[in-house]
Prior knowledge:
By secondary structure, the protein is of the alpha/beta class. 38% of the residues lie in helices and 21% in strands.
Amino acid sequence: MTPQPLKLAFAAAATLGALSLALPASASLKPGATAPDFSASAALAGKTFDFKLSEALKKGPVVLYFFPAAFTSGCTIEAHDFAEATADFNKLGATVVGVTSGNADRVAEFSKVECRDKFAVAADPDKKISKAYDALIPVAGYTDRVSYVIAPGGKVLLSYSSMSPDQHVAKTMAAVQAWKSAK
């Protein structure tokens, strides 16, 4: 039999997890807003480098997605989905980059293992980037699952927030395709 304090701790953790899943979409940067520029330590294929949004935007649109923490189930699913779609994004001129404030010390490993060496992942240990993009779960203080598509001029084309990883790639791909068609 589990001791009462342990049962309460499990119940509290389950409640917090359910609450974070039930929170409404909260991305405040709406289409047309100017995306905040940022620099961050990132990794691609396990190798670290300095990522700067303004530099990536010189090449084309950027698919910027925030995720709670490396090596968690939903984040792994989402990383696999983006890895599978990265070549298609690249054909459209888009760069994919993930950002997390959760276990940011593991982004190099995550970029190699779960992102399958396909796209960069940036660390946001102080949550400055996540705050600038309103991509924090208010109650838990973790990075929310929010995806943005940012046009080369720095304007937000798409803002999509859902704790389910299922539609992030499809929604961002549609926004990049619409941008490409309108060019």
